[in-house]
Amino acid sequence: MAALVDGFCDVLRFERNASAHTVRAYRIDLEDFLRWSVREGVDPLIATHRQLRRYLGELDRAQYSRTTINRRLSALRGFYRWLNVTGTTDEDPASVLQGPKQPKSLPRVIKASDMVRLLSVYGKRDAEGHPREQSYADMRNQALLEFLYACGARVSEASGLLEADVNLACAQVKVFGKGSKERIIPLHAMAVSSMRSYATVARPHLLKDRSCAFFFVSTRGNRMGTDAMRKMFKDALRAAGLDETLSPHTMRHTFATDLLEGGADLRSVQEMLGHASLSTTQIYTHLSADRLKTAHAQAHPRS
After folding, report:
1. Alpha-carbon gap, residue 165 to 88, rounded angstroms
2. C-alpha span between 214 and 158 (Å, rounded)
3. Residue 131: phi, psi to the nearest 5?
4. Which are the catalytic amino acids?
5. Each residue of 20-32: pLDDT tens digit?
6. Do 277 and 284 contact (CB within 8 A), yes or no?
7. What angle do CA 215, 218, 221 make, to 5 degrees?
8. pLDDT tens for each residue of 266-303
9. pLDDT of residue 302
10. What is the model's pTM?
11. Which residues is 217 bridged to in the sheet?
């Protein structure tokens, strides 16, 4: 069974272009199911839907989140479909199972005044407009924050951004998202300015005569990883006095919401976010409508 899980993960990686994060998560989920199967004396190749339901029930009693349980079920569905296609088994017990309903929640965004404070932490000027001295790391961090907000990139896309794919002269970048899907996103002037300062002044000093294909580099001249980017973001939130439970992905939500509230069409926002389905992008229209309701309630005489 362990060999079958390896084969399934290879299909995810090489045939379906799944991200490394997705492959790792599915592997962990399936290995957990196999350990449960051994413990309960269940043969996964002839498991029934009742046995799988019992497995999911144990996860629920162990107080796993609904998101985690649904991801485990998704991994099992994909695994059994693949076992069917390869002729390993005729059983598909996961296909008839339904996961727990997810509570509907709108994504969190950063309000405009807080965004100004956040983007001033490493900037040339503080939130009050006073000039400040920037270190080379500050210039990189500023460029990274501006980049995340300017194009709604995922932190993994920022870490994987190649220097060759940054075209500051044309004010655009090429990023590779989930499934290695390529998209080109425009940049606004402030982001271009910060990224150019970093590229021409700070980046050469951080590289220390080394070469690196990636645009954002660490203080040791290596690719700046996602963990380092998340830590920098937390430090920036703390310095700005903002809620430290926010994440770099909040910048992506804020980017999409601000574009739609500024009049951008939904299809363009979908393209810039790299969503495969327009329905995924539509959640931001609900968020904008919620803000409009709040403004209406505050301003209308009869509200």
Report:
1. 43
2. 9
3. -65, 145
4. 154, 178, 249, 252, 275, 284
5. 888 999 999 999 9
6. no
7. 80
8. 888 888 888 877 777 777 877 666 666 776 777 767 76
9. 73
10. 0.74
11. 223
